[in-house]
Amino acid sequence: xxxxxxxxxxxxxxxxxxxxxxxxxxxxxxxxxxxxxxxxxxxxxxxxxxxxxx
Length: 54
Fold this sequence. Notes:
Elements: E1 9-14, E2 21-25, E3 36-41, E4 46-53
Antiparallel strand pairs: 1-2, 1-4, 3-4
C-alpha cells in the first residue's frame, strides 16, 4: 500500500537563520496549519523554533 497524503513528509527549518532542518511527518487533519516546534539547533547551539516550510 502506498503512503497517502494524509501524513505528508515536511521539512522544519530553523528560525535562527542557520539553515539547519529536521524532517518529520504530520497529520493534516489535526494540524492543517503550518507546524512550529521548539527543537535543538546544533549550529546555533541552543533550542530555537523550527517552522514548517513548503
